[in-house]
Amino acid sequence: MTDPSSPSLTGPPVPPGGAWAGLQVPRSAWLTMVAHCLRAYPEEGCGLLVGAPGTGEVRRVVPTANVAASARVYTVDPRAHLRTERAAEAEGLAVVGVFHSHTHTEAYPSATDVQQAPDPEWHYVARSSPPSAPTGSIRGRWSRSRWW
How far apart are CA 96 and CA 93, in angstroms? Predict the structure, then answer.
């Protein structure tokens, strides 16, 4: 039996320009994520979320190369990450999370995703992007221990 007080893994997808568990995603950022993940297919697409630290507000997303070049895992290009960190800091913002697509599964964090989540304060967004469903779905965020 599921504990009703624990976070659900079957929560609704993030609506375009909407929020999921306090994560505010502008419509333009959502559309950028979707487009990037579709372009990256059949590999996983990935990128960074830039926003105001501690607010859950995403101002923009920065699509990056998946240097793992894989359909099953992703690695954000470290050079793009550094450039994005510097640009965000110059604006008084920060990299507040990462997004990536799942090409073969639904948009839920895999064991690998959770294990590789580097910062419990970050937002981790997963998007399913099978070619049969170009709009896919986007699911909330997780840390090493829980899903929102």
Answer: 9
Averaged over successive runs of 10 residues, the pLDDT of the chain (148 residues) comes to 30 48 80 89 94 90 97 94 98 94 77 77 75 54 46
Burial class (CB in 10 A: 0-12, 13-18, 19+), 39: exposed
The pairing of strands 137-139 and 123-128 is antiparallel
Query: Are the C-beta atoms of residues 20 and 32 closer than 8 Å to each other?
Result: no
Task: Quote the pLDDT of residue 3.
Answer: 31
Decide: residue 45, CB within 10 A, 0-12 exposed, 13-18 middle, 19+ buried. Answer: buried
pLDDT at position 48 is 96
Whole-number CA gyration radius for the chain:
14
